[in-house]
Amino acid sequence: MNRDEVDAAMFDEAGEDELLLAAMMRLGAAGGSIGAGIGGSITGQHGLGAAGGRGGARGAARGYKWTKKDVSTGAVSLDGPIGTAAHTVAETLATVGEPVGTQTREDGAIALRAMLGVGLGGLNPVVVTAVLSPARDGSVQVALRTAGREGLIKRHPADKALAKVIAALNDRRRGPDVVA
Question: What domain of life is recorded for the organism (predicted)?
């Protein structure tokens, strides 16, 4: 198994795509519902929000295939046992985004996944996957992968999400500042 096959198996890219599509469809449905509601109230045809939501979700699904996947990877080392590190990473992901799931792998690694929003208003969804593996020196290696979608204007959502998660992990690792 080469490095690319290991990375694909470790991070499950198909699951990323499904989560990103679902998030984009939720955003499209919300926008379509708001637009139809406003338009319906202006024209006197109330109750168009549900239809606008369905149309917005369909439009987002169609537009999704025209966007390009943006991926960033990074790594962080945490001290302590893997259970403690997993708790730290889970809490960190919960503070910056919405946890999606946890999986214990056959090799003893723990995978955690979350969705977070970046960009203006946090409206660009990004999937964050953290895979924790024990290292030989007693620490825990946290391999991070972020994946988002980009349109015509390159905003690099995966890079922004990765920086946000690494900064939050580093802040949590340092602990609260003590003021004397």
Answer: Bacteria
Of residues 61 and 114, the one with the higher pLDDT is 114
Distance, CA of 162 to CA of 176 (rounded, Å):
22
* 147/92 same-domain check: yes
Beta strand 110-118 with 140-150 is unpaired
Other CB atoms within 10 Å distance of the CB of residue 96:
17
Q: Decide which of 24, 40, 66 is a domain's last residue.
A: 66
**Residue bearing the bigger pLDDT, 95 or 9:** 95
Q: Which CA distances in Å does 66 have to 71, 77, 121, 149, 156?
A: 16, 36, 22, 10, 16
Task: Give me the DSSP letters along 90-117.
Answer: HHHHHHHSEEEEEEE-TTS-EEEEEEEE
What gap in Å lies between CA 37 and CA 48, rounded to an integer?
A: 6
- Confidence tier at 63 by pLDDT (50, 70, 90): confident
Beta bridge partners of 131: 111, 143
The structure's pTM equals 0.78
